[in-house]
Description:
The complex is a heterodimer of chains A (73) and B (113).
Chain A: H1 9-12, H2 23-26, H3 39-42, H4 46-61
Chain B: E1 3-12, H1 17-29, E2 40-53, E3 56-68, H2 73-82, E4 86-93
Antiparallel strand pairs in B: 1-3, 1-4, 2-3
Amino acid sequence: xxxxxxxxxxxxxxxxxxxxxxxxxxxxxxxxxxxxxxxxxxxxxxxxxxxxxxxxxxxxxxxxxxxxxxxxx
Amino acid sequence: xxxxxxxxxxxxxxxxxxxxxxxxxxxxxxxxxxxxxxxxxxxxxxxxxxxxxxxxxxxxxxxxxxxxxxxxxxxxxxxxxxxxxxxxxxxxxxxxxxxxxxxxxxxxxxxxx
Lengths: 73, 113
């Protein structure tokens, strides 16, 4: 039994390079706690998953995205 | 040789716009190179930070697209780091201007094969 292949939503939207300043898009690929979702769950292709990972880490440095969500503080 | 960079600054939101512009000009004067284009600035303005930085909850964001030579960067980064009005900054090589692959031009020819 094979699960149907998920398609990469970034490829579908026609974006070639993921921008670290676009925190609204990036936040779609975060878990409830602010962790980066694995491509297994989000369906992103390897190329865009690599770009996402760098972009999310840069956005965290710039306080556009939290390192940890739901942390009392 | 010059390269394209992208810099993001987070200023203390208590600073006035004139003070921020004065600092930006001072930073970018360090990067000025003959033949290089003037930096393109985008002011995002005051935003809430995702987490507090030095007990500040808000920051004033400025994005700058720069063209400069790599050997100017260490001095520039040192100057920005020492500036107390900057909460945080990030300089990355800009991916915006990527060379277009040569195959794109030959798009029509490939259908014949």
